[in-house]
Amino acid sequence: MIVDIHTHVFDAGLHFGPKLHADLARCAVDPAVWGNVEERHLETTEAADVAIVFGLQASQTDWNIPNEMVSSHVLRAPERLLFFASIDPAQANYMQELEKCHQELGAVGVKLAPLYQDVHPQDPRYYDIYRYCVKHGLPILFHAGTSFISGTRLDYSRPVHFDSVAVDFPDLKMVLAHLGHPWEGETIAVIRRHANVYADISALYYRPWQFYNSMRLLVEYGAQHKVLFGSDFPFTTTGDSLERIRNLNYIIAQSGLPAVPSEAIEGIIHRNTLELLGLPNPTLLK
Ligand SMILES: [Zn+2]
Q1: Burial of 130 (0-12, 13-18, 19+ CB in 10 A)
Q2: Ligand 1 midpoint to CA 39 (Å)
Q3: Judging by beta carbons within 10 Å of its beta carbon (0-12, 13-18, 19+), is residue 281 exposed, middle or buried?
Q4: Quick count: other Cβ atoms within 10 Å of Cβ 24?
Q5: How many helices (H) and strands (E) does the chain have?
Q6: pLDDT tens profile 106-155
Q7: Residue 102 CB partners (closer than 8 Å, separation 6+)
């Protein structure tokens, strides 16, 4: 089974505020290139058997993708989509929002984004969320590593901060997105220490030299079993990600540099992500 642990849905026209549009413009990104994200999401995720879907609530950086919208999108294909709730501790009612998403909207996990929310991973408000997630068996996927957005503290996205969280919450299942780029080595150091901390390889193949080196480092540390497949749709698609990850050794050509073994690559692509994170298998609904 192939699980895409990292897919987004949103409507940039409705859910992105002016500050976020300004950040995108600064980086010469036109949201129109993503097309109709919701419709394309249903198509792209067919390349995986199951996809995890989330929006983003981050008032500090102007993201306002309602959890209700994501939850109703998931109901369009409940036999292959799972909903993670995005919770923003900068909003006063964040614990009520978490309870509502979990108890009424069908959330089976949580998406947090310290860099986007401008909240340190060890902030007491996040600790409220961690306690709730441990109690109810909800995994948390964190944005880890850098981003194009401005005005918040990059330090909050350093993978090493999640090491302290894992010490305080050894039973909390965590996924550090994007191998914490460009601090992939730091992420590998964290995931190999903690039984319940994983990483995903979404959105990395665009930087093929760094990606190859990160994958080699992962194999040299023997930590590839802690890594999950993800795409980061709509910034790429599930199908393109599978193809480009499988082809990552092209960068070394005939140089004599060591290849990333195909068993390591296929192991990540076919990882038993649902079992590892304690998630329900929606394909059983078929
Ligand atoms: Zn993402």
Answers
A1: buried
A2: 18
A3: middle
A4: 16
A5: 13, 10
A6: 999 999 999 999 999 999 999 999 999 999 999 999 999 999 999 999 99
A7: 85, 132, 136, 138
This prediction has a pTM of 0.97
Instruction: Please say whether the dihedral angle defined by the alpha carbons of residues 47, 52, 55 and 57, taken in this order, is positive or negative.
Output: negative
182: cis peptide before it, omega within 30°? Answer: yes
- 143 C-alpha to ligand 1 centroid (Å): 7
For ligand 1, the distance from its centroid to the CA atom of residue 286, given in whole angstroms, is 28
Spacing, Cα 73 to ligand 1 middle (Å): 17
Q: 251 alpha carbon to ligand 1 midpoint, in Å?
A: 25
Kindly state the tokens that stand for 280.
């329900």
Measure 103 CA to ligand 1 centroid, in angstroms.
Answer: 24
In the block, which residue shows the tokens 């549009």?
21
Task: Give distance in angstroms: CA of 112 to centre of ligand 1.
Answer: 11
Q: How far, in Å, from the CA of 201 to the mean position of ligand 1?
A: 11
Residues paired with residue 198 on neighbouring β-strands, in sequence order: 175
Domain positions in the chain: 3-285
CATH of domain 3-285: 3.20.20.140
pLDDT tens for residues 141-173?
A: 999 999 999 999 999 999 999 999 999 999 999
CA 254 to ligand 1 centroid distance, Å:
33
> According to the model, what pLDDT value does residue 263 have?
98
First to last CA, the chain: 15
